[in-house]
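tokens incoming
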């Protein structure tokens, strides 16, 4: 009798193991659990993922603070992925998911998981805040605004949603970052004092620039102002080099000593000049394209120009770069030349030039309306936008503005010149910094740089959203201005994301459902493949809107197949399921 009981237990244990193995093999789609159990995260807009259950029709995702006995948030999901917004920093949450079949019968459930949304000073609104001045009630945008010096993303209510955490000795309280923005595939890029970095949502580095190229006979250059990931997966960044050149004859001897970087070489006086460079790197850090402003700028150009703040320097101060949609043209902005140029990427020739007239023999569209500008951008093929800081140091009656001009029908006046003196709260004047981004709704997001104001404006000049960056001085017990260099916008922390399920509906037949969990429209390629990776069938979806779905009945003649789904907007996002 005892032997029979032991045999029964062994059989039962073997059966249980087989069942578990069957579940593991059958339900291996999205086996990763997110957020991971006992993890710390740095954002309140959270993507939940859990293992899919075969033939589950829907799931209930349940979320609550860990100390609660009842589930305070419950969401019905078509697939095993769901995004929840408006959780809170400094809280610990628990969650689970329950699967139901087409008869609304519970068929499975995950265990409980817990995570903490870590609170830090960066998102403490008693220390840093966006003081809203106005927000139009008709502005229903859920877009996020990324603010570089404060290392945060906020929503339109001014509430922090994400922050960039400290990253070793690269990002911390003493290392200011610049040009924080989201990539097209959902990562983040920014510049530090020493390098340009791409990281994921958790602040984990996925790519970093190689060391700057050393100039001949001088010190190492550095990366600066702007760093962008291109749609082809390459990276483009501004750099510098230093070259000593002899003072031109037009500079009088009694003027030379005001420059603090000059030196005597063989009895002649030389000055160190900073030239701007453009680098394009592959994902493997191979340098595949470069442009050098020394080939463009003459010494006369460099010595006979104004300066945004009258510091006696000799240089053009290259401060912005943009690439057109086709990746065939480069737009560069030189602040201290009050000039923007368009370069043909293939030939490296300058094909368009706007701004003050230079001594260089380059065809110039005379245009004196902008001075000491920042953030020149292509607006499609026909226009250019920029933030015109203006010559406010020299003329107290001038103000800064948002400018847009037509490239094809260039005139002496801009198509748009929106004056930043639009109320009595500020004087509308910003000496340095600033950015302009055209949003998908046609509006413009403007950062005023040294003047700590950020606003969204329509094409006809209506203010839709307006706020001021401020920080609290604890010792003085008062709020003060907190200027930013640049801001940018994205539709969410998850612009590109999808999930899918496949449920059998008959012999050798099943329904494939793809859900676009991201906040941007996307299209998908579907492959039916053998385990040897041979393509049996291929399908293309139409454009699936944000939070939309696409479904299709698939027929398959054999069982040893797998489904592979690839995002068009992020080809690196691939998901697979064995049938």
């Amino acid at each position: 009798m005892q032997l029979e009981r032991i045999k029964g237990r062994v059989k039962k244990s073997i059966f249980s193991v087989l069942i578990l193995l069957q579940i593991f093999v059958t339900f291996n789609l999205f086996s990763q659990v997110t957020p991971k159990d006992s993890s710390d995260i740095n954002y309140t807009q959270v993507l939940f993922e859990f293992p899919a259950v075969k033939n589950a029709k829907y799931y209930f995702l349940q979320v609550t603070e860990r100390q609660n006995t009842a589930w305070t948030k419950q969401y019905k999901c078509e697939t095993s992925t769901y995004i929840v917004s408006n959780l809170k920093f400094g809280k610990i949450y628990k969650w689970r998911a329950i699967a139901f079949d087409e008869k609304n019968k519970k068929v499975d459930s995950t265990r409980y998981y817990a995570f903490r949304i870590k609170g830090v000073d960066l998102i403490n609104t008693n220390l840093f805040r966006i003081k809203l001045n106005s927000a139009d009630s008709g502005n229903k945008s859920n877009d996020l605004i990324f603010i570089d010096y404060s290392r945060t993303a906020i929503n339109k209510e001014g509430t922090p949603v994400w922050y960039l955490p400290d990253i070793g000795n690269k990002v911390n309280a003493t290392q200011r970052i610049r040009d924080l923005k989201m990539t097209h595939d959902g990562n983040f890029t920014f510049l530090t004092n020493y390098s340009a970095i791409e990281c994921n949502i958790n602040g984990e580095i996925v790519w970093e620039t190689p060391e700057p190229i050393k100039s001949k006979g001088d010190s190492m250059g550095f990366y600066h102002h702007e760093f962008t990931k291109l749609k082809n997966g390459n990276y483009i960044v501004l750099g510098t080099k230093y070259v000593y050149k002899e003072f031109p004859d037009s500079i009088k001897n009694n003027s030379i000593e005001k420059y603090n970087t000059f030196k005597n070489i063989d009895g002649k006086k030389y000055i160190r000049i900073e030239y701007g460079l453009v680098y394009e790197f592959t994902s493997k850090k191979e340098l595949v394209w470069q442009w050098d402003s020394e080939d463009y700028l003459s010494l006369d150009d460099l010595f006979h120009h104004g300066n945004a703040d009258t510091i006696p320097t000799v240089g053009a101060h290259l401060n912005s770069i943009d690439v057109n949609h086709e990746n065939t043209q480069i737009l560069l902005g030189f602040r201290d030349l009050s000039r923007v140029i368009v370069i043909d990427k293939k030939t490296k020739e300058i094909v368009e030039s706007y701004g003050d007239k230079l001594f260089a023999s380059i065809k110039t569209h005379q245009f004196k309306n902008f001075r000491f500008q920042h953030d020149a951008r292509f607006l499609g093929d026909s226009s250019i936008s920029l933030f015109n800081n203006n010559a406010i140091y020299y003329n107290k009656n001038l103000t800064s503005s948002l400018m847009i001009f037509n490239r094809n029908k260039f005139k002496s006046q801009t198509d748009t010149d929106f004056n930043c003196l639009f109320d009595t709260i500020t004087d509308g004047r910003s000496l340095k910094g600033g950015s302009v981004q055209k949003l998908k709704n046609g509006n413009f997001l403007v950062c005023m740089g040294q003047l700590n104001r950020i606003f969204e404006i329509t094409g006809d000049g209506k203010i839709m959203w307006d706020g001021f960056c401020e920080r609290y001085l604890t010792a003085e017990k008062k709020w003060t201005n907190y200027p930013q260099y640049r801001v940018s916008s994205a539709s969410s922390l998850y612009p590109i994301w999808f999930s899918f399920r496949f449920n059998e509906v008959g012999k050798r037949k099943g329904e494939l459902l793809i859900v676009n969990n991201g906040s941007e429209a996307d299209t998908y390629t579907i492959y039916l493949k053998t385990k040897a990776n041979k393509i049996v069938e291929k399908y293309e979806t139409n454009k699936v809107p944000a939070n939309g779905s696409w479904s299709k009945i698939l027929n398959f003649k054999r069982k040893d197949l797998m489904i592979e789904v690839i995002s068009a907007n992020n080809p690196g996002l691939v998901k697979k399921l064995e049938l």
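note: The chain has four domains: 1-30, 33-119, 121-490, 496-579.
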